Amino acid sequence: MSTSVAASAAPSSSAVAERRTVALSGLRGAIARNMAQGWQAPRVAHSVDVDLSRVETLRAERAAAGEKLSLNTLVIHAVSRALRSHPRLNALMREKEIELVDDINIGIAVALDDGLMVPVVRQADTKPLAALAAEARQLAEGARTGALTGGAYQRGTFTVTNLGGTRVDRFSPVINPPQVAILGVGRTRQQAVVKDGSVVAAAVANLTLVFDHRAVDGYPAALFLGEVARRLEQAEFD
After folding, report:
1. SS3 of 132, please?
2. Catalytic residues
3. What is the overall mean pLDDT for the chain?
4. DSSP single-letter state for residue 93
5. Which secondary structure element, helix H or strand E, spans residue 144, and what is its range?
6. Which of 3, 192, 202, 232 is most buried by its number of CB atoms within 10 A?
7. Mean pLDDT value of segment 116-120
8. Does CATH number 3.30.559.30 belong to domain 24-233?
9. In angstroms, what CA-CA distances link 34 with 80, 116, 185?
10. How many CB atoms lie within 10 A of CB 75?
11. Which residues in 176-194 are b (16+ Cβ under 10 Å) and which e?
């Protein structure tokens, strides 16, 4: 009696999963190189929760008057003013030195479908709130539509990145080299806080400062973050 052995059937082409890749070239490649360089820095993160009750009241008042203010604009305002008295965080890391920069130029991280762009508000600390808000909106829209020139992304000295439109409470961003610090802003959420001995609900957001420890030590970085938090909690804007 003979025995036959059935050959294994080769999988059909439709059963083979399609291999999908994203080339590390163009914008994605530039982001990859920049983030790899930023990750090499001896990074330290400080984090603080900020009561935004007064900020939210201010935003509501301005909205009623027809002026829209984003939280990101208010954070940029607070950061730019705080950097005046904390110049070690408004600096660039060079090969053998730290360059302290007089102009305070704040990069705004803008998420695109295929990457991240960081246009820069130049001399942000000299601009009143309304002008700062208008310029930040124009830069963000220009980045999304590809309307900005290369110069709009140059000469940044500090970066603010905001995930407030997501469900992320806090995160630790990567420094944008050669800058020495970056501030991450989480979503605004309702949280129980103690005020005048009573527990009440308040709008709270987390700020996380990531800094290069070669350029800045922990204590002065903490003082800077504390000033940013104070300015926001007291709605101290000019």
Report:
1. helix
2. 213
3. 91
4. E
5. helix 129-145
6. 232
7. 96
8. no
9. 24, 11, 21
10. 25
11. bbbbbbbbbbbbbeeeeee
Report the C-alpha gap between 236 and 238 in whole angstroms. 7
- The CA distance from 212 to 35, in Å, is 14
> What are the DSSP E strand ranges found in 38-157?
43-51, 91-93, 98-100, 106-108, 110-112, 115-117, 120-121
The secondary structure of 186-224, three-state, reads: CCCEEEEEEECCEEEEEEEEEEEEEEECCCCCHHHHHHH
Distance from C-alpha of 225 to C-alpha of 89, rounded to nearest angstrom: 10
Cβ atoms of residues 119 and 126 within 8 Å: no
- Other CB atoms within 10 A of residue 64 CB: 8
Q: Residue 2: its pLDDT value, please? A: 47
Question: Would you say residue 164 has pLDDT above 60?
Answer: yes
Q: What is the pTM of this model?
A: 0.88
Strand partners, 45: 210
Helix (H) or strand (E) holding 80: helix 71-84
The predicted structure's pLDDT at residue 115: 85
Per cent of the chain over pLDDT 70 is: 93
